[in-house]
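Let us practice reading a record.
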Amino acid sequence: MKRPNDQTRLNSPEWLLAAYAKLLQRTSRMLACVDEKDWFTLVEEQSCYVIEVEFLSRAEANLALSGAQKERKAALLEQIIEQVMEIRSSLLARREELRRQIDVSQRKRDLVRSYGVPPLLDNKSP
């Protein structure tokens, strides 16, 4: 029995669909990172995601998919896009939260510079 070489396997429709399924798993991990506020791991996962998307883009350029395979790919892509949009929305909210925190810090710093007394950080008495 002849075994296909690595190049053939890397350019098969089955391999492509498996790669999209793995990409979906990666976006699921990215979404979990957002939920857990694990920003460092999210950045690592996003870096790998970008590399994988680039590779998939080039790998599928010369592949012909059957109708069923196209439907499977479309379903995977739909799930991936939904998760990426959810991640993006969460990151935009996080960016706004950080922007507000930076604004508060800058106002506190300006008050200290102007009046020389740091503002109270909480309502508790000393």
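A brief commentary: The domain at 6-115 is CATH 1.20.58.380 (Methane Monooxygenase Hydroxylase; Chain G, domain 1).
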